[in-house]
Input
Amino acid sequence: MATRTDEGVLSVKGAPRASGHTRRRGAERTPRRQTRQQAVATPWLFLSPYLLLFGSFVIVPAVFGVWISLHAWDYTLPLKPFVGLNNYIDLFQPGSTVFATFWGSMRATGIFTILSVPLLLVVPLAVALLMTKKFPGRDFLRAIYFAPYVLGVAVVAVLWRYLLDNNIGLVNHYLGVLGLPDDTAWTTSTPAAWIALVGVTVWWTLGFNAVIYLAGLQDIPVELYEAARVDGAGPVMQFIHVTLPGLKPILSFITIITLLASANMFGQSYLMTQGGPGRETRTAIYQIADTGLRNFQMGSAAAMSYVLTVFLMAISVFVFWIFREKKPQKEAQS
Amino acid sequence: MTQVVTPSRASSRARRSSGRRFPLVRVIVLGAIAVAFISPIVFMIVTSLKTRADATSIPPSWIPDPFSLQAFTSILAPGSGTPVLQWFANSMIAAALNATLVVVTASLAAYPLARMQFRGKNVVFGVIVATLLIPPVILVIPNYLIVSELGWLNSLVAIIIPTAASAFGVFFMRQFFLGLPIELEEAALLDGANRFMIFTRVVLPLAKPALATLALLAFLGNWNDFLWPVYVLFSPEVQTLPAGLSTLQSANAVRYDLLMAGAVVASVPVLALFVFLQRFIIEGVSRSGVKG
Output
């Protein structure tokens, strides 16, 4: 079995090049490699079911959306006149009907993102750091922290609207027991609603980020910590000079996915505050869905979604840039 | 060899002893967080077993008095206007079919991307990965029109098929295939097996853990999906549980006994999956980060 597998190394497409170089026999097999090449159609046959779905429901809509945004596209009306960039211009025209509602919703998304992302980056990291060393019950605790994440936003929001009820909610009850104000209107007044939305989101997704951090922390070689300790580095210095650099790829990944998730916040606001008080917690996604899929002004909603996307792309590029920038500096230092 | 090992063993002993001092404080902190994390879920279950009056009594109690299945019988009763059993069935069917579709299409697509060389491969893979960064919101409006055009609005098909184009799934399976030893496939190739036979008889059996993980993540994702079902499924009888919970909430704003019973029905399958298969789910999530 072993000799046989050795002989076959280069007969398969996509075999790692490196293994071919290390084995002399591989070179003699090159002609066979060509005869073994699959028919041109083979990879595409494998890909076709996926590409059919991907093309129909990802690529086509991504492009079709631009087309929609250039029309006064009302789902309920037969005529969908071409209006050029008017949908976009309206979004940037202070007097237009959509200006205030759209930017109000962008502001809500901004507030939520600014409040939630730092917490969702720091708190799960702290939890993961506390759990890096093995101790009895660690896997059990990790499972408990992760459990809210499997519930889904609808259950989470319906549950917390009950717990946060002004009069009969558990949260106000225990605040009262602690001698704190026990009549906060968590879902119908700001800034309390923001605290509620952010707190619930932290509860819901902390475990997800913590699990990713934990995997990243376990990939940092123990030898690096030992070397740092030999050099006299205390826990804080070890964290700054070993843990953080070692976590860099994970950190940029978590920053991006957390930013995107927070900027796409919808369910919490839809079910817990109904966008209120007024429209204060109505996020951009909420506004887009409502404009396009309740009021059927799809042209305007599509334009909104591209404006939001441009913001998100810019932020993503900025995050990548931050995490790139520090690399050369580090190398220069060491 | 032993000489080399000695110092590191000494230092690991030192670490272990310092580790022994810390865990007590650490376990207390972590335990307190765990209590804070699990108690809302416990309270949800407790409340679902209360009577209407008990659910809104002050101070709130942690033990139903009396124990009552009233909330469940009333939301599960046929003709209640909130057909929770129907929602449960819809959610099950949709999540199971969606997960199947994701696993089949993503693993088929990932295999040539991991193991074959062909023109256009990098472009295809690059485009698939790039869409991981597109905010899903730009697809919502056009997909609504596409689904409407296909006649799928207000039907479960709308939440089974369009969301099955999982870029994450392709990425995830490709990473897994790249990590498999190639020798078995080569042996099969020498034995004259064709690519599809190799894929189904050699690769897929080895990929069972990854397929299970992807299926679970897809199932959970579809089961919990909220925005899309809320807008494309508008009749109560075709809704899924998350969309239904929204309907239930607007129909019974302060009937917390009913709402918690609905939330429990929506949670039981995913919590059960999580309890029995948490290793797959957590490892799937953590692997997505490490490889990302």
